[in-house]
Each structure stands twice: as C-alpha cells, then as structure tokens.
C-alpha cells in the first residue's frame, strides 16, 4: 500500500468525525494548556484523516478500511 493512498472507509470516517470534534471541544474547554494542545492536535488529526480519507498509520501497518 502506498503512502497517500485512500485507506479510510465510510464507517471509519463516521466514527472519526464526532470523536475528533469531541476532542477539539474537550481540549478547548476543560484541560490544562499543554494537555489541551495535545488533545486538540489529536482531534485535528482525526478530522484530517476523515476528510482526506488517508491515514499514515494505516499505510504503515498495511490496514485498509476503504471498500474499493
């Protein structure tokens, strides 16, 4: 599997979007400064992988949830 190839499928995206949004909200509202930045960064990564349908970790592990 090539890096940058679409490997995030529909159900995976459906889960990543609300979890990413929740992490952004929790990081923004409730946590200490350093921890909040890390949690918000994780939320942004989840949203980015859902939007672009590619996950670097999936590429490294050879995982693909995208139905072709």
The count of helical stretches stands at 3
Low-confidence stretches: none
Q: What is the chain-wise order of helices and strands?
A: HHH
How many domain regions?
A: 1
The rounded distance between the terminal residues' Cα atoms is 13 Å
Number of strands: 0
Quick summary of this structure?
The chain is mainly α and 68 residues long.
Describe the structure in your own words.
The structure is a single chain. With 68 residues, this protein is mainly α. It has one domain. The chain contains three helices and no strands. The two termini are 13 Å apart. Helix 1 (10-29) packs antiparallel against helix 2.
Q: What keyword list fits this structure?
A:
mainly alpha; elongated
Summarize the SSE layout with pairings.
Layout: H1 10-29, H2 33-52, H3 56-61
Helix pairs in contact: 1-2
């Amino acid at each position: 599997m090539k890096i940058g190839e679409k490997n995030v499928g529909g159900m995976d995206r459906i889960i990543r979007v609300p979890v990413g949004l929740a992490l952004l909200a929790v990081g923004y509202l409730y946590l200490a400064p350093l921890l909040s930045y890390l949690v918000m960064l994780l939320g942004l990564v989840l949203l980015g992988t859902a939007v672009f349908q590619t996950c670097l970790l999936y590429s490294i592990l050879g995982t693909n949830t995208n139905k072709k």
